[in-house]
């Protein structure tokens, strides 16, 4: 994949991750809660930025560790070079089915941070960043499908340990900063913004999930079944 297309794909996956139902709800709750603690409107935006940076940094670190581990082991690296298209097909199909709601991952609960959440929310901007980092690890099924089934294969096939994960991280932060900006301007618009993002995600997520499934089927037919299309 061309670098520009890979970067655009990583950004799109990040945006979809952030506006997926479970992450979107937790993002809105976290930014709203932290915003009430920090007071001034401009600090609400700064809290949103800090939360986004904490969340993005976690995604980058996890992706860097996984991709580096895969590429640094000679046997695994050789296997991926030779068999990546065969592996990628089923992975894309699974990720697409998760996004379409046809496959559930019950072990991804997406639980909140409980009492720790309250302590971090009262710790100002550093607490907002730490809260974002913790919530990033609370994968829901759709965000897990986008991260593990979308970003990691993309970064691995491109050999990108940092750039694509960083672009993905930026994508996850953009909707959160936008929500923080709406919240800073007034609580009245936050519900409308949430509804608009939910409607957009419902369409965009299904389209992306369908593309994942179709691309996965194509790769399976080409590289596993051996059909010439």
Summary?
The protein is 84% helix and 0% strand. The protein has nine helices and no strands.
List descriptors.
single chain; 229 residues; mainly alpha; 9 helices
Question: Sheet bearing the most strands, described?
Answer: none
The termini sit apart by 19 Å
Question: Tally the helices: what do you get?
Answer: 9
Element string (H = helix, E = strand): HHHHHHHHH
Helix content: over 70%
Tally of strands = 0
Describe the structure.
- 84% of the residues lie in helices and 0% in strands.
- It has 9 helices and no strands.
- Helix 1 crosses helix 8 (163-185), helix 2 (21-38) crosses helix 3 (41-72) and helix 3 (41-72) crosses helix 7.
- The protein starts with a helix and ends with a helix.
Which SSEs are present, and which pair or pack?
Blueprint: H1 3-19, H2 21-38, H3 41-72, H4 74-100, H5 115-121, H6 124-136, H7 141-158, H8 163-185, H9 188-225
């Amino acid at each position: 994949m061309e670098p520009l297309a890979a970067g655009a794909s990583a950004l799109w996956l990040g945006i979809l991750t952030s506006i997926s139902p479970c992450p979107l709800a937790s993002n809105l709750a976290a930014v709203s809660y932290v915003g009430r603690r920090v007071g001034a409107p401009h600090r609400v935006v700064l809290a949103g930025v800090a939360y986004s940076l904490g969340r993005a940094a976690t995604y980058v670190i996890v992706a860097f560790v996984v991709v580096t581990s895969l590429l640094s082991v000679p046997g695994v690296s050789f296997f991926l070079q030779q068999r990546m298209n065969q592996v990628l097909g089923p992975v894309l199909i699974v990720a697409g089915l998760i996004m379409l709601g046809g496959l559930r991952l019950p072990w991804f609960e997406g639980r909140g941070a409980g009492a720790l959440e309250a302590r971090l929310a009262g710790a100002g901007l550093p607490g907002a960043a730490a809260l974002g980092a913790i919530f990033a690890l609370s994968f829901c099924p759709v965000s897990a499908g986008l991260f593990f089934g979308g970003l990691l294969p993309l970064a691995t096939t491109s050999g990108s340990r940092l750039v694509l994960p960083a672009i993905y991280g930026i994508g996850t932060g953009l909707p959160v900063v936008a929500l923080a900006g709406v919240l800073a301007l007034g609580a009245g618009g936050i519900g409308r913004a949430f509804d608009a993002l939910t409607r957009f995600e419902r369409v965009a997520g299904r389209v992306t999930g369908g593309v994942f499934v179709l691309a996965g089927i194509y790769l399976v037919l080409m590289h596993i079944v051996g059909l010439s299309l």
